[in-house]
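Reminder to self: tokens first, then the designed residues, so the page reads top to bottom the way the pipeline ran.
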């Protein structure tokens, strides 16, 4: 089919019916099998039908034929809440074109639109996650950053001596969630509020586990799974010390009937954590963290240290 330019429009969905059509396109393009929850539940910050400002659809003769999310965020340089020295970034996700309209330049045109929008918001870079490197290379995206994946074994964790002075919880109020964000490695990352954290933890098939050391009050936490993605993967975590984190790993294994789990870590990792993981005889695999297109070279040095935790990806 040939496109008539006058019949093409790029805009957010404006009605519940248009949101439904958008979600149907995403499910068709991005899900190999049906799931017991709508795709909008997996991405509550960008696919919420009550706020469609981050959702951009390509309409042709009134029908949605392509889609991509654009989410303007801020990269926090430090954990400190009063520190507003971060830089602006724009995340892209849920990229989909209807099978009947592929290879017609539609997504290229949509990405040009998104890039203009990002520049208007003073974003330093566009970021997305995809295995289609050759396609996005043509749009100016390159593999970026470093992500370490450790393969964890139930057998090896079970051999570790772990005290029983830990209290488990699967829930946390906003004050505690805010505190937990400070337990993560201190690296440039996406600034996230406690309310956003709470909303993201509502994503189906997301296992949030928090442990409190009853001897000294220290907290550790981890998040595994995220909707249809990251099953068996602990993609966000924070702890003050290695023993607390070891207890957290044991908790994940005790709650899941599996012999192996995968742990995602920033490429820039404190030496104490590298020593700890090597002590567990884990397999270390290093991958690019994302695909990125620099829009402003001013902040390239900070972007090279950037790590985006699993909950923040779209």
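Designed residues (314 positions):
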């Amino acid at each position: 089919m040939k496109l008539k330019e006058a019949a093409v429009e790029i805009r957010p969905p404006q009605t519940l019916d248009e949101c439904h059509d958008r979600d149907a396109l995403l499910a068709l393009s991005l899900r190999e099998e049906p799931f017991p929850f709508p795709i909008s539940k997996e991405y509550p910050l960008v696919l919420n039908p009550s706020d469609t400002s981050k959702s951009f659809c390509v309409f042709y003769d009134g029908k949605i034929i392509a889609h991509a999310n654009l989410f303007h965020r801020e990269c926090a340089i430090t954990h400190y809440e009063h520190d507003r020295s971060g830089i602006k970034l724009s995340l892209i996700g849920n990229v989909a074109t209807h099978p009947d309209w592929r290879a017609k330049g539609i997504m290229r045109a949509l990405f040009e639109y998104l890039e203009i929008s990002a520049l208007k918001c003073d974003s330093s870079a566009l970021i997305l996650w995809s295995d289609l490197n050759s396609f996005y290379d043509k749009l100016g995206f390159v593999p970026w950053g470093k992500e370490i994946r450790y393969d964890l074994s139930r057998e090896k964790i079970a051999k570790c001596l772990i005290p029983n002075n830990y209290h488990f919880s699967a829930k946390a109020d906003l004050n505690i969630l805010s505190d937990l964000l400070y337990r993560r490695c201190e690296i440039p990352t996406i600034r996230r509020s406690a309310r956003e954290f709470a909303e993201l933890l509502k994503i189906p098939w997301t296992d949030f586990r928090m442990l409190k050391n009853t001897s000294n009050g220290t907290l550790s936490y981890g998040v595994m799974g995220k909707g249809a993605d990251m099953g068996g993967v602990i993609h966000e975590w924070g702890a003050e010390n290695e023993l607390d984190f070891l207890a957290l790993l044991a908790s994940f294994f005790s709650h899941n009937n599996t012999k192996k789990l995968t742990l995602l870590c920033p490429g820039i990792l404190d030496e104490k954590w590298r020593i700890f993981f090597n002590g567990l005889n884990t397999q270390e695999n290093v991958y690019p963290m994302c695909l990125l297109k620099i829009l402003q070279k001013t902040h390239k040095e900070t972007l090279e240290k950037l790590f985006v935790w699993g909950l923040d990806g779209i």
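DSSP finds nine helices and 15 strands in the chain.
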